Amino acid sequence: MAPWNFLILLLISVSGSDAAVFTLSNRCRSTIWPGILSGAGKPQLMEGGFKLKPGQSVKVSAPQGWSGRFWARTGCSFDSSGRGKCITGDCGGILRCAGAGGEPPASLVEFTLNSPIDYYDVSLVDGFNLPVSVVPSGGGAGCKAAECVSVLNKKCPGSLQLKWNGQVVACKSGCLAFEKPEYCCTGAYSSPQTCKPTNYSKVFKTACPKAYSYAYDDASSTFTCKGANYWIRFC
């Protein structure tokens, strides 16, 4: 079977001058439900969420100055009204997240466009549920991929594991698991000088060196590009 017979491309346009086109691709073996949360005052894309079957891709256009995040929800079940529940990444029990963020743990992709260049990263600060990568296209030789392609669920310490029917479906951050300032970079640990990598964040960093492992993990985890489109691949 030719690739175009099972790769379904949907083009969704947003009014106004486009800053970038995001192509979200599901390379997983099962269906996912991507979620999108726009930054404050920024237009919502795709009503915040949709269904994406294995092998499918969806193109989403973002306007100038857009910022926000993408993540994948897993194990979802929704009724005809779009209400239901997801095992990971749930956004309040609705298909169209429409301004609601994903429940951690979830792997995040974060963007700030045209400031005056694009900033982007893969973040595990809220934990991990699926491998994800960001590959820029058309932005020049200096534009690099951000990624976490390791299946961290298989390496997740027991105290961080989120299980469903006996299977590890996500890996919590130290902050989510223990709610202590030294893991959350809060209180007395709310600066780069006082909040340092922990044994738990180091597990994430070893597995995914190009992704944020804790709040102040900027040096090796923030990427920049200009004038590019971006391919966001799950799994």
Could you give the order of the helices and strands? EEEEEEEEEEEEEHHHEE
Uncertain residue ranges: 1-16
What portion of the residues fall into strands of 2 or more residues?
Answer: 25-35%
- Helicity, in percent? under 10%
Main CATH class of the domain at 18-150 and 210-234: Mainly Beta
CATH topology of the domain at 18-150 and 210-234: Thaumatin
Strands side by side in the biggest sheet: 1-4-2-15-10-11
Distance between the first and last residues' Cα: 22 Å
The outline comes out as: globular
Give the second-level CATH assignment, the architecture of the domain at 18-150 and 210-234.
Sandwich
Name the CATH superfamily assignment of the domain at 18-150 and 210-234: Thaumatin
Supply Rg. Answer: 17 Å
Main beta-sheet strand count, sense and barrel state = 6 strands, mixed
GO biological process, one term: defense response
Subcellular location: Secreted
Organism: Manihot esculenta (Cassava)
Pfam families: Thaumatin
Account of the protein in words:
Belongs to the thaumatin family. Residues 1-19 form the signal peptide. Keywords: Disulfide bond, Secreted, Signal. InterPro entries: Osmotin/thaumatin-like_sf (IPR037176), Thaumatin (IPR001938), Thaumatin_CS (IPR017949). The longest helix has 9 residues, at 199-207. Strand 6 and strand 7 form a beta hairpin. The chain starts with 8 loop residues before the first strand and ends with a strand. Residues 1-16 have low confidence and may be disordered. The strands form four sheets. Strands 1-4-2-15-10-11 form a six-stranded mixed sheet, with no helix packed on it. It has a five-stranded antiparallel sheet with strand order 3-5-8-9-14, with no helix packed on it. It has a two-stranded antiparallel sheet with strand order 6-7. With 235 residues, it is mostly beta strands. The chain has three helices and 15 strands. It is globular, with a radius of gyration of 17 Å.
